[in-house]
Structure formats: C-alpha cells, structure tokens
Amino acid sequence: MAVLALVSAAVWTMRGAVAMAAMEKIYARAMAPDPFSDLPDGLHVGLCGSGSPMPDPARAGPCTVVLAGRQLFVVDAGAGGTKNLSLMNLPPGKVDAIFLTHLHSDHIDGLGELMLQRWAGGGRASPVPVYGPTGVETVVAGFQDAYRLDRGYRVAHHGEKVTPPSGFGGLPRSFNPPRNAPDVVLIDTPDLKVTSFPVHHSPVEPAVGYKFVYKGRSAVISGDTTASERVEAASKGVDLLVHEGQSTALVAMQHKAAMAAGRQNLVAITHDILSYHTPPEDAARLAERAGARYLLFTHIIPPLPMRALEGPFLGDARALFSGEIRVGHDGDLISLPAGGKEIRRIDRLAIFQ
User: Fold this and answer.
1) Which domains does the chain carry?
2) Could you count the other beta carbons within 10 Å of the beta carbon of residue 261?
3) 177 burial type by CB count under 10 A (0-12 exposed, 13-18 middle, 19+ buried)
4) C-beta of residue 219 within 8 angstroms of C-beta of residue 45
5) Does position 19 have pLDDT exceeding 80, yes or no?
6) What is the spatial distance between Cα 173 and Cα 77, in angstroms, rounded to a whole number?
7) What is the per-residue pLDDT for 331?
C-alpha cells in the first residue's frame, strides 16, 4: 500500500508537466501549416454548430463547414460556431467564403466574430465573400459598423502587416433565386460547383439551401425549411443530405408545459415554429425518394440533453430511410473522398480533447 501511495503521489506531482507536454503537441497540431493534411482529397462536410435558437450546452448555433479539396467554406454563422471551427482544426483564418441560408438571428449572430477571426487570424488582405439572399448587404454592413472600433484597436496593436486594413469585414454577394427558375450557380470551376435553390421558410423570404459538388462527390444543405420539393430535386443521388429537424412530439411537450405555466409568449412560439420546420420522418421520406445515401440532421429542435432522446427525436425516420441516418453533433465531419463511394464519419472535436 505504501508503494502504491508513493506512485500515486508521484503521478499527482507530475500532472502539471504531463499536461504541459500534451498542450505542446496540441499547439503544434493546431499551428501546422496544413491543418487539412489528415484528410484525403475530397468533399468533407462538418457541423460547427448543430443547434437552434433554443439554448443547448452541447450544441452551438447553426453552422456547417464544407472543405472541398483545400477550399474552406462555412454555411451559416451561428453563435459559437467560430470557436468550434478552431477546435475542429478548421481555422477561421482559412475560410474562403461564407454562405448564409437566410437572415434569422440564430444563423447570423456569429457572423461578426467569424469575419473578424478570418481577417485577424489569417492576415487576409481582402474581405471574405459573404453569399446570401437579398438583405445580406444590410447584415454585413451592420456587423462591420459594430466591429469598426475593434478593427482600429487590432491594427494599432498588431500593425498593418499582421492585420491588413483592406482585409477587414465581408464582401456581400446577394442573390434572389426565383421559385420557379433553375438553381443559381454561385461557383463553377472544373472541380467545384456550388449552387443555391429556394426553400420554404415563410414568412422568411427569401430562404435558400446549397449544393456542393466536388470531383464527383456531392452534399446538399437544406437550410431552415419545411419539406421542400427543391431540396428533394437537389438531393437526387446525393452522397450526403444535411437537413434540419424538429420533433413534433417534443415541441408539443414544450407547448404543454408553457400552457401549464401560463407562459403565453412561449405558448405562441411553440405553436408557430411547427409551421416552418421539418419533422425527421418527413426529411427521411424526402431523402429516400431522392436516393440520398446519408442523412445527417442538424438545427436540432428542441435540445436533446440526453442521448436517449435521439430515438424519440427521430421517431420512425430510420424505418423510412434505407441509407445511414444520424442525429448530428457539433464536431461531426462526414468525409467523402474523391474518386470513390466511401462515406465515413469523424468526430473532429475529439481529436483535440
């Protein structure tokens, strides 16, 4: 027993040194010139935020990251998403463009921080392109105004070589996809094509989804929507469909509790949100009809504080979809290597825990 006590005491004494050694390795990995070196050439789609406006300690606000080859894109910028990008070793400084599905607060409340970290963390000399529906100009301008004083502080502190004044903020690129017109092509190169299409999120107009195709691998991101024929059309034969999901049964429980407590504001909200989100069963039916291979749920409503709630959240969705299905978590990265059919999932947050 005395020997065991001495060993335990020695381990306890050395814990600081062990922790320091571990941090040295973590920093070296995080500062590596190519943070994507562990990933094969291909299309990789991850969740930097799988939550919704409802508070959830395990999920950041809506944020999806797409790595196409060595080009890094972010779809929506919910609160906490920028920090998760860093934790996933997908550095904000490497972001080549931002895409917004619509202008609800939970999809834009982290945009200022993402634009700032992309500029200061990457030493960028030009603003980040921010694609989005009509109105994105107002949003980008507002965040730039809010961060203008901070811009001055950082340039004064670090100097123009580290934080080039010309790289501050975002460059809005707005579009308005008509409901009965073809998808809007936003990027079209030999290896990569990015398109956008309208979805149903009334009274939010316009609201859009996005499709990424890189070297034959494909992913669709639904944005916030009810079951949409445009999402289904875009998802024909797609490798991955990232779709929002809302449990009707669980929201009904919230509604009942709000009524019992006399919380009339929440009674109205839990009633209204049912009309512009998608139950998992509807998304599963859509994915099955489209022939999608993998269905990943994000924008989880309501929060699921226990893993045991994922089954009730999905309801009958697993029986309705023949491909793989998953309730998404922050850090999930679905890897689609170029030149094949492989689909694999990585917990990109676990790498640095």
Assistant:
1) 39-352 (3.60.15.10)
2) 10
3) buried
4) yes
5) no
6) 16
7) 98
Upper half-sphere CA count for residue 331 (Cβ side, 13 Å): 12
Instruction: Name the residue with tokens 């697993």.
Output: 318
**Distance (Å, rounded) from C-alpha 258 to C-alpha 246?**
18
SS3 state of residue 232: helix
The tokens describing 205, both together, are: 């107009």
Residues in the chain: 353
> How is residue 171 written in tokens?
């460059």
Can you name the residues that pair with 335 across neighbouring β-strands?
44, 344
122's tokens: 């990457």
**Residue with token string 């993402």:** 114
Cβ(349)–Cβ(83) below 8 Å: no
Q: Is the pLDDT of residue 12 over 90?
A: no
Give, as one character, the DSSP assignment of residue 327. E
326 CB neighbour count, 10 Å cutoff: 15
Residue 18's pLDDT band (boundaries 50, 70, 90)?
A: confident
Cα dist from 323 to 123, 170, 227, 284, 294, whole Å: 42, 38, 18, 9, 6
Q: What are the start-end ranges of the E strands in the chain?
A: 42-49, 63-68, 71-75, 95-99, 128-133, 170-175, 184-188, 192-198, 208-214, 217-221, 240-246, 294-301, 324-327, 332-337, 344-347
Distance, in Å, from the CA atom of 114 to the CA atom of 82, rounded to the nearest integer, reads 6
Least-confidence region, from 5-14, 109-118, 166-175: 5-14
> Per-residue pLDDT tens for 189-202?
999 999 999 999 99
Burial call 295-325: b when 16+ CB within 10 Å, e when fewer: bbbbbbbbbbeeeebbeebbbebeebbebeb
Nearest residue to 241 via CA among 187, 275, 280, 204: 280
Name, in order, each residue with C-beta under 8 angstroms of 144's C-beta and a sequence gap of 6 or more. 115, 168, 169, 170
HSE-up of residue 303 (Cα within 13 Å, Cβ side): 13
